[in-house]
């Protein structure tokens, strides 16, 4: 399967080397790119990268730049053909800003029809975070295709085995599955391709 990956903008990026003028790398984009088998170039995976650990608009401003709002959409469209599936990872949550006046939700709506999948950290507090994100998506005009819970460490709190059932009690959005910490196997992922 050919998998495309795109991260519209990233902050908290670091130089691969300490040389002046060295290209800065987004760790999330690098992980996506490697997991997908290195499609295209890393610069195409995440074309807008900033150093400061701030919201992208603020991180760009700290460098005397702005996030190019047109490029967010234009660069995403180039990934939507030529692949069996494309994963677009937002920066922050669904209501996090990508550029002035543009949230992750706005970009998702511009790219419709796409499947919006809510990926959450499986820990205490995830029930509220997930339900609030689903409600925001629906209020914003997009119904998520599903929810994926990700174990973020080997040492999980007591809620980890209960969170999926609790979330399911309060939303019709299906739980697609759970990804164990360090796992590369997601046998349920094919449900998204139907």
TrEMBL record:
Gene3D superfamilies: P-loop containing nucleotide triphosphate hydrolases. SUPFAM superfamilies: P-loop containing nucleoside triphosphate hydrolases. InterPro entries: DTB_synth_BioD (IPR004472), P-loop_NTPase (IPR027417). Its EC number is 6.3.3.3. The keyword Nucleotide-binding applies. It comes from the Bacteria. It catalyses: (7R,8S)-8-amino-7-(carboxyamino)nonanoate + ATP = (4R,5S)-dethiobiotin + ADP + phosphate + H(+). Keywords: ATP-binding, Biotin biosynthesis, Cytoplasm, Ligase, Magnesium, Metal-binding, Nucleotide-binding. The keyword Metal-binding applies. Pfam families: AAA_26. PANTHER family: ATP-DEPENDENT DETHIOBIOTIN SYNTHETASE BIOD 2, DETHIOBIOTIN SYNTHETASE. This is Dethiobiotin synthase. The lineage of its organism: Bacteria, Pseudomonadati, Planctomycetota, Planctomycetia, Pirellulales.
């Amino acid at each position: 399967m050919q998998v495309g990956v795109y991260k519209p903008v990233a902050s908290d990026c670091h130089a691969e080397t300490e040389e002046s003028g060295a290209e800065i790398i987004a760790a999330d984009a690098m992980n996506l790119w490697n997991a997908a088998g290195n499609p295209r170039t890393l610069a195409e995976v995440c074309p807008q990268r900033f150093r400061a650990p701030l919201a992208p608009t603020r991180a760009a401003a700290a460098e005397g730049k702005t996030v190019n709002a047109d490029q967010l959409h234009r660069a995403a469209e180039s990934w939507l053909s030529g692949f069996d599936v494309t994963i677009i990872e937002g920066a922050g949550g669904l209501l996090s800003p990508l550029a002035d006046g543009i949230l992750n939700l706005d970009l998702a709506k511009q790219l419709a029809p796409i499947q919006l999948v809510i990926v959450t950290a499986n820990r205490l507090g995830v029930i509220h975070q997930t339900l609030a994100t689903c409600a925001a998506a629906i209020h914003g005009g997009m119904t998520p295709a599903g929810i994926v819970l990700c174990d973020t460490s080997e040492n999980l709190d007591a809620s980890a085995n209960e969170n999926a059932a609790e979330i399911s009690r309060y939303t019709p959005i299906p739980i697609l599955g759970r990804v164990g910490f360090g796992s590369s196997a997601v046998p349920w992922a094919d449900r998204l391709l139907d």
